[in-house]
Amino acid sequence: MRRCLTGVLLLLCLAWMGTGQVAARTPIADPVLPLGGLWKGKLSVLGGQLDLTISVVPLASGKFFAALDVPAQKVSRMVTEMTVRGDSVLLWMPDAGTRYNARFDASKRELNGTWMQAGVKSPLRLYYFPMPTVTGPGTRLAPPYREEDVTFNNPVGRLNLAGTLTVPPGPGPFPAVVLVSDIGAQDRDGTLDDYHMMGSLADYLTRRGIAVLRYDDRGVGKSGGNSKTATTAMLVSDVQAALNFLRARLEINIARIGVIGHGEGANVALLAAGEPLPPAFVVSLAGYGLTGVQTLLQQQVAQDRAKKKDPVAIQAAYERQRTMYDIIGHTNAPQALAIVSNMLRQDQPTLDPKAAEAQAAELLTPWRHYFLSFDPIEGLDQVHCPVLLLSGTDDAEAPAELHLTALEKELRSITHAITVKRLAGVNHLFQPPKTEWTLMNGEMKPLFSPVAEEVIREWITGLYAVKPTKELPTSRK
C-alpha cells in the first residue's frame, strides 16, 4: 500500500514539472474559518515520511488560493482546489487524482483527515503556521532558484545598467527573457506602491524553468543615464545590451532568449526584433498601437472619465492638451517653454511663474518630444520572430480595441507567427479584478494575473516543445 503511494507521488511530481500549471482559485462555501496560512504535516510513505505544505491565501472575493508543495518530490505550487462546508475542508489535486478530506479543529488550529490517492488512504494531520511576512528587513524568504545582482554595459549608450538575473536550479542551459518596463523611470521590480509587476513575473517564470533578467531603468537605482533624455528608439540599445549579456552566460540557451515588454517596453521589444541579432521571440504586454500623441491624449480622456468629469469639460481639456502637444512638437524649445508655461498659468491662476516653468520643462523632455511623434506601427515589417500580443479587457490606458487591434493587423500582414489573446478583467498593470486580489491583514493586495502568467509561460515553452513524430505503419507480410 505504501509502495503504491510513493510511486504515485513520484508520478505526481513528474506530471507537475511537465505541465507547469498554476494553483487554482475555487469558490468556497464558508470563508469564515481562519484557514489563511501554511498547513504543514508529514505523510507516511514506505521507508519514512514526506513533508507536505499547503499554502492557503484568502482572496477578497471570499475564495481561497491554495497550492501544494512536496519539497522531497520537487513538487512546487501544485494545483489545489479547495471547498469548505461548515468545519469540513475538502482539497482536490486534479492533476494527481488526489483528495484530502479533513475537519478543522478550532481549539488546536489543525486539520485532521484522510489523504486519498489511487485507492490508497492514509491518515494525515496538518498543523497551522502563519504565512511568512514579505516586508521588512531580513524577512524575505530565499527563493528556490539562483538570484544574482548583475551589471552589464551598453556601449551604444555609453552607460552601465544594473539588474537582477534569476536562474532555475540545475545546470541548464535554460530559455531566458529580458523584461522591459512601461513609460517612466522604474526600478527592476516595476514597483508601484505594494505591487511589483516585473518582480512577480520574474519569480513566476524562474520557478518554472525560464531564466529572467530585469534591470533598473536609466537613472534608477544603480543604472547610469537619464530616462528623460532617452527616447523610445534609444532604449532599444539597452535591450540589445541585455540580450548580449545573456548570450554570454553558459547557463542560458543562446537560441532561446526573448524579450517581454510592457506598454512602451513592448514597443521597444518589437523595435529590437527588427534589429541585427534580434531576440528569439517577443511578448507584448499592453503594447501601444497608436502614435504617441494619440496614446497620451486617449489616456487623459480615460482618466477624466474615470473621475466622472462633465463631457464638455473633458472635450475642452482634450483640445487644450492637443494644442499643447502641437506646440511641443513643432516649436523650438525656448518658445515652447514660454508658451507652455503661460498655458499652465492660465489653467492654474495661482501657480507661481517659476513653478509653471518647472512643470513646462517636465513636458519638454527629449523623451516626450520624441514619443509624441512616435508611430509604433513603423518598423514592424522587420519583425519576423514569433510574437505574443496580450492585453486586458479592462485596460483603460491602452484599450485593446485600439492598440492591440492596430498591432495585430500590422503584424498579421507580415508574419503568421503571431498569437493574440485578450484577457478578461485584466487591467493595464496586468492585475486581475480586485475580487481576485489576496487579503493580508484584512487589506487587499494586488497581484499579477495568474491567468496571464500561465499564458506567457505556456506560450514560451510551447515554442520549443518537441512535437511527437508520426508512427510509421507496420508493414504486412
What does this structure look like?
The two termini are 46 Å apart. The chain is 30% helix and 29% strand. It has helices at 2-19, 197-207, 235-247, 264-272, 292-306, 311-330, 333-347, 353-362, 366-373, 403-412, 450-463, and strands at residues 25-26, 37-45, 48-58, 64-70, 75-79, 81-85, 88-93, 98-105, 110-117, 120-129, 146-154, 159-167, 174-180, 191-192, 195-196, 211-215, 252-262, 282-285, 387-392, 418-423, 438-440, 443-445. The longest helix has 20 residues, at 311-330. It is α+β, with helices and mostly antiparallel strands and 477 residues long. The strands form 4 sheets. Strands 1, 2, 3, 4, 5, 6, 7, 8, 9 and 10 form a 10-stranded antiparallel beta sheet that branches. Strands 11-12-16-13-17-18-19-20 form an 8-stranded mixed beta sheet, with helices on both faces. A two-stranded antiparallel sheet has the order 14-15. Helix 3 (235-247) crosses helix 4 and helix 7 crosses helix 8.
Write the layout of secondary structure elements.
Elements: H1 2-19, E1 25-26, E2 37-45, E3 48-58, E4 64-70, E5 75-79, E6 81-85, E7 88-93, E8 98-105, E9 110-117, E10 120-129, E11 146-154, E12 159-167, E13 174-180, E14 191-192, E15 195-196, H2 197-207, E16 211-215, H3 235-247, E17 252-262, H4 264-272, E18 282-285, H5 292-306, H6 311-330, H7 333-347, H8 353-362, H9 366-373, E19 387-392, H10 403-412, E20 418-423, E21 438-440, E22 443-445, H11 450-463
Parallel strand pairs: 13-16, 13-17, 17-18, 18-19, 19-20
Antiparallel strand pairs: 1-4, 2-3, 2-10, 3-4, 4-5, 6-7, 7-8, 8-9, 9-10, 11-12, 12-16, 14-15, 21-22
Helix pairs in contact: 3-4, 5-6, 5-9, 7-8
